[in-house]
Amino acid sequence: MGFFSRLFQPRSDGLKAPSDWSSLPAEEASELVLFDEEAGRVMAQFDIDAAIVGHERWLPWLGTLLQGQRDERLRADVVQDDRCSELGQWLHDSGRAALGHFPAFDMLLRRHRYFHQQAAAFIIHVEAGETALAEQAYKSCQHASRQVVLLLKELQRGLPGTRRRAAAKR
């Protein structure tokens, strides 16, 4: 059982998670596990492995700006919108419909949004020639990206079919 899955479970009363995820009471903490019907719907709509790989590509792409390379697709006004990526589109649409009742989902959504905010700040600092601030924003991007990937992996571990495949590999 993973770290996040022990902490973030759907609320027993069915209400939305509090906006301050860090203060969840202990009695609300338990495992993030999706029922087979939900898991099937999530897996049919979204490839979590591809989302992880796609998200991990952002950091090297952003890093090219530090090396003086320019990419017209990396515009702060576009990157700031966390819906500009496939993962962001899924999180705001069918991902929310399927998994929005899990407190960990809201944390994933916030971490993903924060990543995009920091990526936009990074681009702005690079374009302004503010190297120290750009490097600081890049480190924030790295940290947020690792959190997004960890949350996606935790979500993936909670899928019943994924757990069965992992057990079969042992």
Automatic annotation (TrEMBL):
Pfam families: CZB. InterPro entries: Chemoreceptor_zinc-bind_dom. Residues 55-122 form the Chemoreceptor zinc-binding domain. This is Chemoreceptor zinc-binding domain-containing protein. The lineage of its organism: Bacteria, Pseudomonadati, Pseudomonadota, Betaproteobacteria, Burkholderiales.
